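Lab notes, practical 5.
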Amino acid sequence: MPAGNKKSGTFRKVFRKASGGKTVVHYKKKKPKQHSCASCGKKLIGIPRLSPVKMQNTPKTKKRPERPYGGILCSACTRKKITSESRS
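Output from the prediction step:
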């Protein structure tokens, strides 16, 4: 039986092979959902799916793409926004 705090939907079951051929169940936290574009809602590429605590320890260059609006808008929406700003 799992411990009381492991019974909620917060944790996922991971089956591991232990020594002696036994299968053991480990409970791991689920990953957060993928970040999405602020204008179109498309899933953003280049941003890791990490918990806020682990995100603090990753370097800034690994957290989001290094371009204007990186980590906020997808590449297509960024392109549209930059071209519309240059026209006006």
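Observations recorded by the TA: Residues 1-30 form one domain. The two ends are 64 Å apart (CA to CA).
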